[in-house]
Amino acid sequence: MKRGSKFGVWGVFTARGLGALVGLGLMAGAAGAEDIPKNLECSFTGGTSWSYDAGVYNSKAPSPLSFSIEEIDLEQQKATLKTGTDAKGGKLSVVRAINANHFLEAVNEGFLNLTTVYDKDPHLGKYPAVHSRHFGLLGQPVFGQYTGFCTDK
Predict the structure, then answer these.
(1) From CA 53, how far away is CA 4, in angstroms rounded?
(2) What class is the 35-152 domain?
(3) Which among 126, 121, 114, 118 is positioned nearest to 150, based on CA atoms?
(4) Is the pLDDT reported for residue 78 higher than 60?
């Protein structure tokens, strides 16, 4: 009985070549997230919010939500959140990923908001996005996950 691949040394090179192509593909995908504009306008119309009360989680459709992410600096990993034209900007930390950028906000009370903006959909010309909120109200957990899009501002 013979050991090894019938392709011998070429099988090893082929496997390495395939691995290199996959790696290049991942790097090419990461470049898309690098092309994000400096300012985005985001609108979320779908999703679900939950509240916890008396040992039970209750869900409902959330109200539509919109805000802008401005002054995006991927190298410094920071951005500014604006909830209105006259609103003071909130500080966002940026976590970069393959095909996406995550914008993390720790609000004054210590609760967290996370917005993930994915690579632009070439057919729609928009960036698919998900926004999650984790907070509490009167000592009870309240959280929501919103779906929507961001566009160049």
Answers:
(1) 61
(2) mainly beta
(3) 126
(4) yes
Helix or strand or coil: residue 142? strand
Q: What share of the chain is helix, strand, coil (3-state, %, to 5)?
A: 15, 55, 30
Given this model, what pLDDT does residue 41 score?
98
DSSP letter assigned to residue 121: B
Contact 115, 102 (CB under 8 A): yes
For the chain, which residues make up each domain, given as ranges? 35-152
Residue 93 CB contacts under 8 Å (≥ 6 apart), including other chains = 77, 78, 103, 104, 105, 106
For the ranges 22-26, 29-33, 97-101, which has the lowest average pLDDT?
A: 22-26
- pTM for this predicted structure: 0.76
Give the integer Cα–Cα distance in Å for 80 and 94: 10
Residue 33: helix, strand or coil by DSSP?
helix
